[in-house]
Amino acid sequence: MTGKKIIIIGASSGIGRALAAVFAAGGYMVGITGRREALLREIAAGRPASYHTAAFDVTDTATSIAHLQTLAAAMGGVDTIVISAGSGDTNAALDFGIEQRMIDLNVRAFTQLADWAFNYFKGRGDGHLAAITSVAGMRGSRQAPGYSASKAYQINYLQGLRQKARSEQLDVVVTDICPGFVDTPMAKSPTRFWVAPVGKAALQIYRGLLKRRSVVYVTRRWRGVAWLYRWLPGWVHRRL
Questions:
Q1: pTM for the full predicted model
Q2: Strands ordered across the beta sheet of 171-179
Q3: What is the rounded distance in angstroms from the CA atom of residue 69 to the CA atom of residue 49?
Q4: In terms of pLDDT, which residue wins out, 141 or 40?
Q5: Which segment of 41-45, 90-94, 122-126, 163-167 scores lowest on mean pLDDT?
Q6: Is pLDDT at 190 greater than 60 in this prediction?
Q7: Burial readout 82-98 (b: 16 or more C-beta within 10 A, e: otherwise)
Q8: DSSP letter string, 113-134
Q9: Are 128 and 139 in contact (CB under 8 A)?
Q10: 109, 230, 131: which is closest to 177 by C-alpha?
Q11: Do residues 132 and 201 touch, judged by C-beta distance below 8 A?
């Protein structure tokens, strides 16, 4: 990462908010987005010279890209875009309303945001696209089938964009930020372990992005867990 301008989509709370603070402290101009304008203003008030804000709902696919274009223009262009907007819920009852909300945000809106960011960097000649996925996307989950499936979609979509950048010989880096459990309201699993403080997670993500890694596991110990979970025999996985 060579530039000093970043947009974090979904920065009003959780990992996105913590990551915005780390980048601002590192001297970056930080564009932050979220649905809750009051929270964005609260973040910006702590370091007014570092932030640009845009309040909108990314699931409103008819208007969200216009908001991002306006934000990027107000910042004089950006070098890095992080998609942190996402949702996660357990859903043992298979309530379709819960699944639909996750699909709208984690699949439909995510795809539009990723496509826009990739094409934005393609047009300017270089850039860095990153998105927060999850170790949960490695396999299906009986507690949260929609969440694990939507994160699997994101992981594979980012792989496809990375392959596309290489095939087209583009100087576009694509990073999969793959957390385990982080201490945010999103961590709703009844079997949590190795829960990382959000500040620690944000700092590790920051360092991984500076190194332009393809995948950043948060925390680093989850790299081994992800590998084991991915290759766990099916008969064992079915009994979890």
A1: 0.89
A2: 51-55, 29-34, 5-9, 80-83, 126-132, 171-179, 215-218
A3: 20
A4: 40
A5: 90-94
A6: no
A7: bbbbbbbebbeeeeeeb
A8: HHHHHHHHHHHHTEEEEEEE--
A9: no
A10: 131
A11: no
Q: Quick: pLDDT tens for 48-92.
A: 999 999 999 999 999 999 999 999 999 999 999 999 998 878 888
CA distance 132 to 86: 8
Q: Which domains does the chain have, with CATH numbers?
A: 5-237 (3.40.50.720)
Binning pLDDT at 50, 70 and 90, where does residue 130 land?
A: very high
Tokens of 170: 């583009």
Task: Enter the tokens of residue 54.
Answer: 């845009």
Asked if residues 171 and 125 have their Cβ atoms less than 8 Å apart, the reply is yes
Q: How far is CA 233 from the centre of its chain?
A: 29
Task: Tell me how long the chain is.
Answer: 240
Nearest CA among 196, 223, 52 for reference residue 135: 223
Question: Distance of CA 125 to CAs 118, 148, 159, 165, 169, Å?
Answer: 10, 34, 20, 11, 10
Contact 32, 43 (CB under 8 A): yes
